[in-house]
Amino acid sequence: MTETALREQMVQMAHSLFMRGYSSGGAGNLSCRLPEGGFLVTPTNSSFGTLDPATLSQLDAQGEHIAGERPSKEAVMHLAFYRSRPTVGGIVHLHSPALTAVSCLPGLKVDNCLPPITPYYVMRVGKLPLVPYYRPGDSGLAEAVAALAPTHSAMLLANHGPVVSGGSLREAIYNAEELEDTARLFLILLPHGMVMLTDSQIADLEKTFKKS
C-alpha cells in the first residue's frame, strides 16, 4: 500500500473508531509503518474524528519527527513496539470504555487480564498482559511495552487503556475491536460467573490460528 493510501486509511479508520465511541476528544493514538521506513502517527491532541491525511505526523526509523504536525507524546511507545516486533505494521492505543474500566479493576492477573471466554479473543490476541502504571509519555512506559512486545501482540496499560498491534493498521484495529468486545462481555458476566475455554480448546486454537 502506498503512503498516500495509508494516510487515507488511517483517517478513515480513525473516524470510524471515533463515531463508535472507541475514542473521544483528543484521546488515543494510531500509527502504521511506511513502505520506505519510519511510520505515521496521529498528532498530539488530535481527535480521531477530524484527522487530515496531509498533516499526520511522520517519523523516521529512529523516531525523529520529519513532517506533519507534532506527534503524539506516545510516539516513543509506538517506536519501541515496532523495534521489538518487526512483523507489526500498525498499532492502536485507545481509551475505549470497557478495556479502560478493566484496567482499573483490582486483582487482575498480570500475565492475562481477560479470561479466555471466546475463541476470537484467543485467536486474535492470545493473552493480554498488564503493564504497570506509568504517566502518559513516560519513557518507562515505552521500555515496559518493548519488553512485552516480542511475545505479545497486545497489552493493557494499568489505569489507562489497551495497546494493540497487527500486521497492518487494519488488522490492529480489528484486533482492538475484538479485545474491546471481550472486555465488555467480561464486565457483563463478572457478577454472574462465566464458562471459560479449556486448556485443550485453547491449545487447538493456538495451533490452528498461529499468530506471527
Give the tags.
single chain; about 210 residues; alpha+beta; L-fuculose-1-phosphate Aldolase; eight-stranded mixed beta sheet; 7 helices; 8 strands
Question: Could you explain how this protein is built, in words?
Answer:
There is one protein chain. Strand 6, helix 5 and strand 7 form a beta-alpha-beta unit. The protein has 212 residues and is an alpha+beta fold. The protein has helices at 3-19, 75-84, 97-103, 119-124, 139-148, 169-189, 199-208; strands at residues 29-33, 39-41, 57-59, 65-67, 90-93, 130-131, 154-157, 161-166. Strands 4-3-2-1-5-8-7-6 form an eight-stranded mixed beta sheet, sandwiched between helices. Helix content is 38%, strand content 14%. It is built from seven helices and eight strands. The protein has one domain (3-208): L-fuculose-1-phosphate Aldolase. The protein is globular, with a radius of gyration of 17 Å. Helix 2 runs parallel beside helix 5 and helix 3 (97-103) packs across helix 6 (169-189).
Radius of gyration: 17 Å
| Chain-averaged pLDDT | 96
Q: Secondary-structure element sequence?
A: HEEEEHEHHEHEEHH
CATH architecture: 3-Layer(aba) Sandwich
CATH class: Alpha Beta
Count of the separate structural domains: 1
Question: Going across the major beta sheet, what is the strand order?
Answer: 4-3-2-1-5-8-7-6
